[in-house]
Structure formats: C-alpha cells, structure tokens
C-alpha cells in the first residue's frame, strides 16, 4: 500500500514498509498501514501471522528493524524521550491484564497518573473512580486483583489505560484469556469506547465485535497484510482465497459474525 501526503497528514498512526525479524524468522514483511483519528481497525488472522507483533511495534514493546512507525506525528527512531511521550498517549490492554497484584483496584488506576503524568492524588482518584464507574467496577475499587474474575480484571485494565487519557487504544487479544461467559462484558466496554469515538486498533478473533464496531478489518497471514476491507465486504465478498478459508474455519468453530 502506497501512502499519500493527505493520508500522512491525517493519520494518528502511520506505518510504512515495516519489517521485523526474530533471529532468522521474518515475522513482519513490508507492512504499511495508516489509521486516522477516530477510526476503529480490527486485525485478525491465524496464530503466528504477526498480528500481536505488529500492534506491539506501535508503542515499541517490539522494535522493528526496517521501515518507519509514526505515532501522533512522532517518528519512533529509538529516542527514549519520544517514546515516553508516545506511551503517555497510547493506551494498551493485553491478554493477561498486567495489573499490579499487590495494589488495590483504585491504586492500580491512580499510580500511573501520579507517577507518569504528575497528576495530584485527589485528581487521580476522582478520574479513576469516574472511569471505574464507566466500566461498572467502582464497587470493587478497594479490592485486589486476585479477588476479581478475569473479565473484571480486564475491565479494570481498560479503566487504568483510560486514566492516562490516551489518544489511541491498542488491544492485543483482550478476550483470549477469558472464559466464554466473561467475554461479553469486556466487549461491551470496548464497544462503548468505539461509540464514543476512541481511536482503536484491536487484535481479536471476535468476529461479531469486528463486524459491529470496525471501520476496517485487516487480515494477516505469514507476516503480511493479505486483505484490508470494510466489515461488510470483508465478510460477504472477501477478495483473497486465504481470507475465505480463514473465515470458513473460524465461523465453523462457532464464532458469530452476525
């Protein structure tokens, strides 16, 4: 995909000819992608296709070897100062929550604000409680993560990320570690964020969520973008045989795309 100047100027995330290796394994191959403010982009594909590696390159949890990654107008070039600025504005939710087990829910949400943003304690608490309300977890503010279900912990992780007032949210398979009955409560929170206009890039196999929320769906295989399309076209008329095979397999295993 060739980037044009108009796309460059409007993009909150701009990736151009990105290549990444783990040793001799070429895990990302010439990836180009732009995401505009307010867009919701879902990335899907089989295991080992490079989805999570791609999303982790956006905030440099994984460093690429070739190509460029530009976020919020900053080209990530190894500068620690640039990276710190970007990470304050890019929220991320992982598969396994990454909450501090020795801190209460409230402290998990206030500590990043006070330590990274310099927010006064009382202001951090007010913001945290408001966001815990948003994810329907305020009543659990004084509990520890071990006292909560997986779905509850993931909602706390989303609230913690939102406490930093990010301009873009990254989700790396946020429901894959959850029991089936807990998935919907997390997807409901994510759907609400999407409806409010949050810029989102989400790696997921939840095809119903993708069809409902995404502006674009990107299908990856073997480290490459195979197909990129709006949801309706992606599900009803995929251009690639590889995409059709993937959708057939995932839908046959009970994933609802309606």
Summarize this structure briefly.
The chain has ten helices and ten strands.
What pattern of helices and strands is seen along the backbone? HEEEHEEHEHHHEHEHEEHH
Indicate the overall shape: globular
Strand portion, in percent? 15-25%
Strand order of the largest sheet: 6-7-8-3-9-10
Helix run count: 10
Radius of gyration: 18 Å
Give the helix level as a range of percent. Answer: 40-55%
Write down how many β-strands occur, each being a DSSP E stretch of 2 or more residues.
Answer: 10
- Oligomer description: single chain
Largest sheet: 6 strands, mixed
The assigned structural class equals alpha/beta
Round the mean pLDDT to the nearest integer and report it.
92
Which runs of at least 5 residues are low in confidence (pLDDT < 50)? Answer: 1-6, 254-258
Q: What separation lies between the terminal Cα atoms?
A: 29 Å
Question: What does this molecule look like?
Answer:
By secondary structure, the protein is an alpha/beta fold. Helices cover 41% and strands 23% of the residues. It has 10 helices and 10 strands. Strand 1 and strand 2 (25-35) form a beta hairpin. The protein is globular and about 55 Å long.
Layout of SSEs?
Elements lengths: L4 H6 L2 E10 L2 E11 L4 E5 L6 H8 L7 E6 L2 E2 L4 H10 E4 L11 H13 L3 H14 L15 H13 L5 E5 L7 H16 L3 E5 L3 H7 L2 E6 L2 E6 L1 H6 L4 H12 L6
Parallel strand pairs: 3-8, 3-9, 6-7, 7-8
Antiparallel strand pairs: 1-2, 1-4, 4-5, 9-10
């Amino acid at each position: 995909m060739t980037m044009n100047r108009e796309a460059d100027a409007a993009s909150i995330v701009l990736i151009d000819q990105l290549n990444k290796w783990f040793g001799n394994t070429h895990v990302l191959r010439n990836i180009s992608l732009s995401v505009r403010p307010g867009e919701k982009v879902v990335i899907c594909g089989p295991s080992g296709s490079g989805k999570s590696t791609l999303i982790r390159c956006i905030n440099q949890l994984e460093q690429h070897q070739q190509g460029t990654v530009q976020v919020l107008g900053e080209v990530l070039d190894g500068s620690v100062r640039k990276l710190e600025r970007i990470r304050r504005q890019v929220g991320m939710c992982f598969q396994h929550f990454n909450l501090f087990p020795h801190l209460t829910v409230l402290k998990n949400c206030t500590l990043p604000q006070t330590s990274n943003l310099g927010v006064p304690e009382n202001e951090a608490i007010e913001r945290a409680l408001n966001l815990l309300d948003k994810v329907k977890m305020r009543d659990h503010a004084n509990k520890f993560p071990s006292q909560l279900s997986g779905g509850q912990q993931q909602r706390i992780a989303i609230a913690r990320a939102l406490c930093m007032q990010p301009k873009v949210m990254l989700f790396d398979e946020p429901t894959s570690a959850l029991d089936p009955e807990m998935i919907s409560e997390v997807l409901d929170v994510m759907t609400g964020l999407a409806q409010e206009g949050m810029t989102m890039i989400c790696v997921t196999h939840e095809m119903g969520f993708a069809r409902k929320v995404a502006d674009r769906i990107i299908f990856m295989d073997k480290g490459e973008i195979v197909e990129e399309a709006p949801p309706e076209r992606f599900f009803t008329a995929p251009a690639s045989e590889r995409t059709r095979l993937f959708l057939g397999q995932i839908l046959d295993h009970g994933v609802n795309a309606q």
